User: Fold these one by one.
Assistant:
Number 1:
Amino acid sequence: MSHAVLFSGFRLRPAVCLLAGCFGLFCPQMRVLAQEIQVVRVNSGAPEGRSDEFSNKQSFQRSDLSQFGATDASELLRQLPGVQIVQQGAKASEVRLRGMGNGYVQILVDGQLMPRGFSVDSIPASQIERIEIERTPGAGQSQQAAAGSINLILKPRFRAGQSEAELTQSLRQGRWSPVFALRQSGQHGDWSGFWNLQAEQQTEDGLLQADRRNNDLQHPVQQSMTETSQQRKTVLSSQQRLQWRIPSGGQLGWQSWLQWSRPAQDKQRQETVISGDAVPFPFNQSQFAALNRSWRQEMQWDQREADWGKLSLIAGWNQQLRHTRYDFSGSDLQGKALEQRLVTGSVHDNEFRLALNWQQINADEQGWKGGISWQPASRTETRDETDQPLNGGMPDSDQRRFIADSSRSTLWLERNWFQQTGWHQQAGIRLEYWQNRLRDNQTSPVEQSRWLISPVWQQVWKTAEGQEWRLGISQNWKLPTSFQLIPRRYRVDDHNSPFNPDQTGNPALKPEAITGIEFNHQRKLDESSALELGLFARQMRDRIGYDLTQTNGIWNSRPVNQGSARWIGAEAELKRDGKFGDLRYQMRWHAYANWSQLKLNGVNSRLPEQLPYGAQWQLDLQNGAWKSGLSLQWQGTETYNETSVLQAENHHPLQLDWYLHWQQGSQQFKLSVTDLLARSHDSTDRYRYQGLELEENMRVGKARTVKLVWQIKM
């Protein structure tokens, strides 16, 4: 079946979504009295369960995620069904849902957008209480998640008076990476508190190999490159929570999260030219070091009243400071230094948030929810670069100062209610006003402002037999980043090519508008197993892609709005648990497939960086005090057009993980091996224009990691 036939019936527009949402929200005929109905949870006993009966959400508790000895949030996420951790060549790992990442997945911390400068790699696993995955978020969450949202819930507190210590040792390629965590909680009258301290040291070696060639007989090119690197990171983080239960019935809470980190990298690269022109620096090396400080604080006041429900006032502040230094040295074939480059920089991020939320929900989860929020943010960035030729040339320097001010104002309203037949309806609308002002010392200011209207409408039907059907329609957005908007040039270190171009921003970029519809069905097959099926479709307008050009021999990439794209997908998940004598088992299988269509100057393609299909299988065994398990993940090959002349192909290796977990009194021990097969990641990029084809093959080495975790409760 062709893509044209698959997508021919999918022509949703935002006006249709808005009409559906407003109809469900305000139509008086749909308002019914609360009825006592039987609610059946589809839970086969597998680790996850629905924490919100009326949202398309899965909740994973920490006790079900910690077997593999994860040290940060990204290692926890890779164990979840439907979540893919993908590496694109030498780029950093990326979190994906439904085959998409790179801005299509929304990462939340305690229900709020992750602040700028924060990443899932920087959140210690010991600070996470649970993880929630939501395919269709309600109106109370930002609708910047066409593929879904991942909500990282930090630990609220331990049982009063409990202390806990945890030591982790990881071994990878002969290098040890220790992690130590200490947690303490207490309570005095109406006051309760929690404190978590974690320190870690990570060391990791990397290997990257690449080959380049073309089909030009008159000017043949054949080159090879080998790059070795060593990455080190030292992290110290602290989390505090304090809560006061007010005698009048409310409560006041404060939480703080402070982290210092020092990442560093040493890199050596050797390039060999078999035929063709010589590269600028056949031998080069670089050193990178940074000092980061992140501070996140939040205060929340909750008050409940029988007459008008619950009122929550939230005030938060996020700050990040980063100082970086980058040294680059390029040499010729004889090892003689040709050029030295020094880049120093600093980033100062400040983000504030003030929100007022209200809800009037009865015991049957019927009623109204709403809220208003204001979130201003500012970023100041400096970058000083000096290039010093060592053959007598004049030095070249570039000094930049970049300032970005933004604000987001939000108003949202949502209505939940039942009908007598077991139908549940949720309808809402979210209005966001986004303002952005970007300026630096060399270009004109860039100003943008947008109204983002996001209607949400969901229908849920539950039966007493454990079956459930869901239908949802929503409007999502993907905003351009500051890096994409500023019209300044970012120069690559070495070997400018179609596969490694300079990059320039585009101040005229518009956000992507994404209309979606999805269907979900869950059912219990028997007392020990359950099946879940999902279908979804998305239509994107003003999709952001890249335009590749060459001027005076220099390749440059620039983001542009490329028209529309369409994307449909299917997911299936099967869960089963049972017993063989004293041995209990839990098995989960998840599979997905995605189809998309995008036209680039007359060339049909898939959406870039989209996984076409894949599957994950997990098996957990338990007998008394010990547990063991396997996780196997398979991802299909990505083939797509990055531009009309540039094609990419990514081959993702099969990944197998294993763990053993046992408990003895107040102590726990965990042994795990991640990426047992240790297969390399291969990718191919091809540039085709007027009969000329240039190809680059890249291989990133992989290695298995052995972890041993010791935990004691005091």
Note: The first helix runs from residue 3 to 7.
Number 2:
Amino acid sequence: MKNFILKNTKSLLASAIMLSATGCSDLKENPDFINPSTFYQSAKELELGVNAVYDDLTMGNGDWSNHFYNRYVFECLAGYQIGWEKGPLQYNLGNISASDDYINAYWQQCYRSIDRANNLIETADKIQDPANADKVKRIKAEAQFLRGFYYYELVRYFDNPPLKITSTQSYNDLPSNSGGKQKVLEQIYADCSAAASVLPASYSGADAGRATKWAAKTLLMKAQLWGQKWAEAKATSEDIINNSGLSLYADFGSNFDLNHKNQGERIFEGQGSAKANSTEYTNHSAHFNPEDFPSDLGGAGWSWLSATKDFRMSYKSSDKRIDATFIESYPTGRTAKNSKGEFPIVKWSEKADYNLSRFGGLVDPNANPNNPSELIFSKAWSGKLVELNTNWSTTEKNTIYLRYADVLLGHSEACNEVGQGDAFASINKLRERAGLEPLKGLSQAALRDAIVDEIIHEFAFEQVGYPELRRKSKFGGNPDYLGAYIKHYSDTYKVGRTVKAKDYVLPIPLIEIQGNPNVKQNPEWQ
């Protein structure tokens, strides 16, 4: 963090203030020199600050290699999601280092927002705005949730991030990771519990999308799973199931469309809207649009990321999640136009050829545009993240971070591990929606395997697979789900990748190790 402390100390909250023109109207000094102790005098001003803490969940900070895209890249370590751009390609091969650009960017984005949250929490405790005391408490609780959220994001990839819960004041104000993962998890438990006690169950109007009580409890449950606090995770998930009023959408696809933003089982999501703010769009379509989708139809992108044909084939044909998870058909510009002068429609088929190259799995460019049997492809494009007919810079899609399926699968896992309660009930709710047969009569180990399989197929392209696989695995141990995925990928596509201990945790950035004597590198990377 040392490399950006000066920037954050000098102008950490300037971007928060500049989010709103009304916020700037009262300022007399240059925003680069705004002092939080003199600017934040009311709940309204404090709210501008917390908006900036949400900002790293989208592209609001202008980082092209943004928070969620870096997660895209990390996901390629598991092998089922692939990419031809240099970052995803190297992760597919297991070629990463402590000086990796994506790791550096992700680390700085998380700590930038953590430091902002720390500052707001301290400031909220000092603000004198009696008429809006409840709002100040709510904003502080939002900052606590967000601090917990970003620390969770760090734990799930790095295991032992340094913990800091006070704002940065100088170059010498450097945190330590001596307490390891457990110390960070304890802070997440505390932040989420505190936030849940204050935050409302829901919002309306312009506040839709802010952290809720149930978002805080869902994050608490997920952190408890990481800490193997099975009884506590079971109790937290049952609280949400019994008291939140949340339920699954009948249609799985409602989790990812534009008509259900910030509603129902979508518990927490990063807000993206080019209409509202030209810098607040996501760049999902830029990375996941099919390579051969005609730009004449309005879409655009580089098609860096997809999933393997083999992964797409791992879904049962009856699985109702397929239609929303993948792009099953689309117009192609790779062949000639058909007899009607239109771009022909290609459809996914396991009969289509496939390889790992950039153009592998696309329709044959020499296919007869009037013969449906030739208009087939096998690449597994994401249906969750794109708007096919929309340019990437005008997309309106949000980024989903927490949804009710997290709670249900967490509940089944906790029940299974603690040996109490109905471990099948919650996972079977997801399977029922997917049109799959219910699970029953499995041993603890077999149900553990089934839960992992369900996580991967329920959350494909939501960038949770790699951290969940590694959470449940041990290098050379049993079970070793991550190792099995990597080996399957390597064997299937002959990439010559060997499973190694470094695959199971990301390295703490070299720039942090060199600049902060209080931080020690993860053992696997020493």
Note: DSSP finds 21 helices and seven strands in the chain.
Number 3:
Amino acid sequence: MDDRERKPYVHRLWGLSIVVVLVFSILGFNLWRLQIAQGSYYSAMAKGNVMQLVKVQPTRGDIVDRNGKLLVTSVPEFALNLDWMDLQQSKISNWKDVVQRLAGYIRPDWPNPNQSVDSIAEDIFANIQNHQWERYRPVTILNNVPPDLQAIIAEHQEELPGVSVDAIPVRSYPQKTLGGQFLGYVREIGDKEIAQFNQNADAQKAGFEYAQGDLVGKDGVEKSYDFWLRGKEGVQQVEVDNNARPVSKQVIQAPEAGKTVQLTIDADLQKTVEDSLDQVIANVQKNTNPNAKSGAAVVIDVNTGKVLAMASRPGMDPNDLIGNISQAVSDKYFTDKTAPAASLNRALTGLYPPGSVFKMVTAMASLQLKVTTPDERIRDVLSSLGNLASQQQGFPEWGGNDFGLVNLYRALALSSDIYFEVIGRRVFEANPETIGQIAHEFGLGVESGIDLPGEAKGIAPSAEWKKAYFGPTYEKSRDAKLAAIESKYAPLLAQAQDAKSKQKLQTKKDAEKNDVAVWYKQKTSENVDWKVYDSYNNAIGQGYNTYTPLQLANYVATLVNGGKHYRPYVVDKLLDPITGKVTQQYQPKVLNTVSVSPDILDTVKKGMAAVTTGEGTANFMSIDMPEFTGGAKTGTAQIGSKDTISGEIYNGVFVAFAPYDHPQIAFAGVVEFGSHGGDTAGKVAEAAFMKYFGWKSSKGG
């Protein structure tokens, strides 16, 4: 090949060499710029990337009754989410356009149908802004996405990067209002609740800490056993840059489902009690008092403390409290604007005067102090209370009755007020603290320690209690009056012209202080010191006595099981959600054994049996249920004080146990505005006993 033929190839080779040199020069320059000239800058940028550990929520555990019947579960619900990572890594230039298009698609299913597309988009922007502190988490835009919207999102997926419809577990209560209050509900944790939940002993032992955004139980079993129900959260590792933008993500620990919680509750018995309570309240509304809307009932195993049924009315459907709730729903469950607040578990937190069902405590105290005997007979007339002054502080026999001569058994059977006023006064005069002490031993006026939140304590009154409760109010008022006198006279005395003027001022000051002392003595005598009418009132379950239906049921259980006061509980065991094996078994716990002797317990138990037979106020128990053996006590509890408007309004209260030999269950019920307990709460007890024991009604039911 001659030079002329070789020349073009030489030119091409030189050209290619120049290009290669140029490319490598550019690469070398950039490498120098990145690693040397700007190396510290990019090193700092890389160090700004951090790893965030994000919780992956597990499926919340089921709640079942003692027989395995499903009461609470988690079901898949489709949620519309916006994932910032996917959106920012897409090819879309303006993410706001994605949000605007999304708003247009979801408008027909948006909770507020009157909002425009632009307004919906603004709401979405606000939601995004609220989650700026965790931009690596998907933001939920809409819950419970209907199938037609799911199809639309799928069809336009290419123009909606980062938008997805995901199945998430949502709490479901398939039995609706059945046991709604003791089951509770689930919502996002409040800022003020985080510290409270982090005090949970099981959570602390496991090293788990609650945080903002967690879904937690808000009441009932859902709250008490939240740590076990919530399961073990998974962990997703997300790398974010120094602008909090996600770069990559990876699941490093899969979540574990929560435990299955098995209750002591019998769902079928629970339904029977609730249905009967509904019917009784409806009857009272129709025939006696239209204001009757509330009530509660408890059935408890007397030998273990297991709660078999716990009903509260008005009923609560926890499904109503999932997700966004309207003002009407909020009013229904949490305020008394239109009706009694339905979220209140009246069996656990409702405090009621017990009325005559308290008389067994007075009976036990009188026998223990030996101020009477079971066979002593007292004439059932007002004069038995003593002189005229004593009679004026007491109460005449209910219904204007005169039961003649009554002993302890007949007094319980007929619910004689006069009898218990007489022996009650004797008890308080012998030892003013005995009735309160015995009440406490049987679980009245003390927290039971049940494994549910929100238990009310109640009051078992005594002379010392009254002094401690009312005394400080008058002491504070007295001290304020005396301080005002000192402030008034201090400058006047300092400016007095002579000894005579000063003495005159001092005399006036002393007179005013003496007036305060007289006022204080009068007020404490009237409102702090224990009076004869206090003895009468409290001996028959009125006055300051207030207890929960749960306490009343446990009090009867303690009385008939030989004096063992058990801690009531509603959760029997925890089960592995996969294998069904028991991982935690809860056992009965005796809180105390009462000081009342077995002989006295048997005597009072015999008196309760007399209530359900012959002339007893609950003889309908034996008439309606021929198979029934056991005992009961009726109560007609006055809501207000004597000679007031509410003094003529009564709650119906009823307690019972069965069978008589080797008792198994105890019952306590209250129907607000229900008047006589036998006619109202007593009918709920009948339904409960027939269901539990399989007894038949003489009426063919």
Note: The two ends are 121 Å apart (CA to CA).
Number 4:
Amino acid sequence: MICKNNIIHKRNLMSVLLLMSVCLFSGVVLTSFKAETATTNRVAGTVQESLIQDMAVLKQQSQYLTETLESSDQEQVAVEQLQGAFYEVKQAYKKVEYLVEYLDPELAKKINGAPLPKVLIEEANYQTLQFQKPSVRTFLPEGLQVLEELLFSEEVNQDMRKDAIVLSYSLQEAISLVANSLHHQPLTDKQILESLREELIRVTTLGITGFDAPAGGREIEYATIALQPVLNASQQYARTTSGKAKAHSSKAVHQLQQAVLYLQQHSDFETFDRLYYIRELADPAYAALTALQQELLPTVASVSKPVNDHANSLFSADFLQAAYFAKQDRKEQKPELIELGKVLFFDPVLSANSERSCASCHVPSKAFTDGQVRSVAFDFNGTVQRNSPTLLNAVFSNAYFWDSRAVYLQDQVPDVLVKSDELHGNYEEVVQKLQQSTAYRKHFKRAFADEPDNSLNTNTINRAIAAYVQSLVALNSPFDRYMRRETEQLNASAKRGFNLFMGKAACGTCHFAPTFNGTVPPRYLESETEVLGVTVSADFAHAKLDEDPGRAGVVPADAWQHSFKTPTVRNAGLTAPYMHNGAFATLAEVVEFYDAGGGAGLGLDVPNQTLPDSPLNLTAQEKEDLISFMESLTDTASVFLAPERLPQFPKNTGLHDRPIGGRY
């Protein structure tokens, strides 16, 4: 897991934290344990009984940890004893993780959430009322990961022990809230089957990467423990079902047994073969559990959540549903709407001078970037503030732009269209211009056939362009085809690189599979930003911190100073230069920066850096392998997507001969 620095808790926060735990739980529990109409069968009853027993053990272990920490505050208790008590809690949590995190993900964050400060925006109207500044409150992180960083520091002093006591009390309270509620909340097959599949995703994308083991190690051991209840529940289904359900559950049992055995036999974190584990063991187990759920509880495909319940692989093209991430049009888009969006995307008519289009900065042949350090500004008046990120697979996020200021794809369009250094447009003028084209009016009527006659307006322009960007999904790279077993061809360097990416190099703890961006598994409902301490250039011998405030320029929170969205590394071989400021010209320079420990590792003052400042100590071959893996994520199927022609305008408008994609 990415280490988070400067986490300090004071004893007088204890009562506040406990009160927040109670309030949070009371608000969440009503929706977390909503009863299903389906009858709970023997499997659900057995699973619930085991869960209650395991939660009782977790509760006892958390109490023991608190008592041990309190003793250490009064007398000299060896750090090893504190660490041992912590391990017992962490192991006990892993046994219940699959259902606790499924039933109550918000409360689970208080138990084992990422050690990131939580920034609460109290005045959210700043997004619509531009004169109003956002008001924020920052809450320090808590839970097992924060405790782990404290207890496994190089030196655990008395102040750190006191901070750990506060954290342990909050942890104990959160665990008690979950444990006490389980006696009165029956489980259903739907909850169990979905939680099993989620846990497989969690172990595959987070567990074996060390995401939630930031300091104490034992990553593979924890993954093994976390998979055991998934195996146990699958065995229950194999014993109590028949026909196709029995066949699917039996296959799941077989794959999970092999997965657990492999984890037990290969417990070294750095040498663990993640590629083999995922492709040969975990992914087939996921497919079997998906088939089991569809057999027992058949459902129609729905875009009500990011993960497709019908997908049988993490690397299926339909594993994540692009339609979920839309705003107004949360559905599969009509071809007519996508086609209209494509035409608008490449048409300079949207800009004030009718010479610049969206495609000016997002060129298909460059994976929808422009290859510039910073994109050229309107009328060649210098450059814009940042680098143009790729639009391929950009849909898989709930935060857009480098500073995450837009929540939906659709919200990006007006920001670009009206911005003075980008398209410098005006919606009223754009609508008036488009109305002059008979071809455009017909385009809009076809795309919005079920809308009122005035379908050519600000909203429909935004929706059309967003629909086109939503369609820019490129998940058919050589790596994807290999993981889907469509081919056996993947070079050895890329294979080694994937294992490094998801292991020693820790890339996969921020660039999460399968999108390899910052959208967090297993539900893919939130997208992270990170503080890397990005430098102004690749001159690391004379490193200087880039002054761009990043997300803090939108929301003035100290925790977000220099924080930027984690982009996808898919198609990274085509999207140089890299970082928000284009500081690095090659992937080799990017790898060198991370290998050094980011800005803080280079000696810069970055107190809130979320990247570990310790060097990765990658060898020259390992660096080459990492780059080989990232290059294996290239999918150029969407390169030649420009329209053949643009809609015609009357010659007297001066818009008749505008070029596709604009003049610059």
Note: Residues 56 and 516 are 37 Å apart (CA to CA).
